[in-house]
Input
Amino acid sequence: MSKLMVGASKICIDPPREMYPFPTNFGMTEESRNPCHVRALALESEGRRILFVVYEMSDIPSHPGLMEALSQASGIPQEDIILAVTHNHSAPNDRSKMVKGADEKFAFFRDFVVEKGKEAAAAAVASLRPARYGYGEIPSYCNVNRDKKTRFGFWVEGPAYDLYSNKTLAVLKFVDEDGKLIAAMLNFGAHAVCAFCEKDADGKVKSSSNFPGIACEFVEKHYGDDAVCLWTSGAAGNQDPILWEYQWLEYEDGYVTKIALPDGTGYVNMDILGAQQGADAVACLDGIQELKEEMPIRYLKSEVPIQARMRDPNFKIPPFGLRMGGEGPRTDWFAPKMPDLPVMLPDPDRVIRYVLNFLLLGDVGVILTSGELYAEIARDMMEATPMKNRFVITHIPGQGGYTLDKGSKDHKVFQSFGGVEPGSADGPLCEKTRELAEKALAE
Output
């Protein structure tokens, strides 16, 4: 059996300074606060290469030729390239839900991130060298369940301390023959939303890699010597950072409003959480002492079809979407009224096909899915595998969207009205995960 080879790289994907203001998926930013990157990790074992390419963006880049370009730059077949994003809501983007009239900037960034991805992929492969690997886990108290039900019955996006949250930071460690860190892969379930479209203390809205990118740079600076740290998003459909850029204010008559905190609060919070998780990662990396030279690689792919549903087409979405409560200080004192919520109807002509792949890296199982899963579903998927070391990566290319578990059927937060019935995906995803893991281990 051949020994493991590992290479890694990172490339900044911030647009040139003169192109700001630049759009994100959610609004315009005036400058960069801290850089966003694309990071690549190449693994070779038994003559097979696997390449991870992770962008610090909110969405998978939309250029249709991206995978082909990454393959040509790296020499690795497209089927062995794993593309993901950190779901960073503060990143420059090649399209937007909110911004109009920025077509030239979107077109530029669409090509720009392909070129930067090619650079990262080629550099990772070029730096392949003999390596050893190890796996560890550590608690990281940086996230919280966000399906909050206020005392008077409003469902809001806020800290629900009494509901399930997976605090595990999973860490893959790769070192060279001298024991120096080549790369680390972190996996954690939380939206990268400490601040997006919020003003910094100087009054400017800024792009940022958010707390995951700050955590990665913390690790890279700690170890130096060109160490690369990739952050992958675990199941975060109902998980947010524990520090926010706003709070909820409740009133005596049962109403609740969203109150923004002073300018800059969200950016300070991302610094705090990024450093906290970076320190957690360093503690875990230093604690991983059992290292192996051989890493058998097995990569199995599948899809899980789930019957779709749709909103009643006559339903009119309110200005702030389906988030309950008010926005900003209360301006009227009428009796509080629960918002109208859409009636969900069967969509018999549509099936949502979740990508569900299983990557065996030695004694570590990596479950990859396109769905934005609730943390409880990922917990059950991991328990369905016959492996001790395993974690779930979301935000890879494919269909899915918010996916609520069976225990969250009564939640009325905005993500509750998506394409699949809450609880309908738990069983099929867990069963397919079990099937793939057992097959990978038997090969």
Observations:
- Residues 55 and 291 are 28 Å apart (CA to CA).
- The two ends are 15 Å apart (CA to CA).
- The chain is about 20% helix and 30% strand.
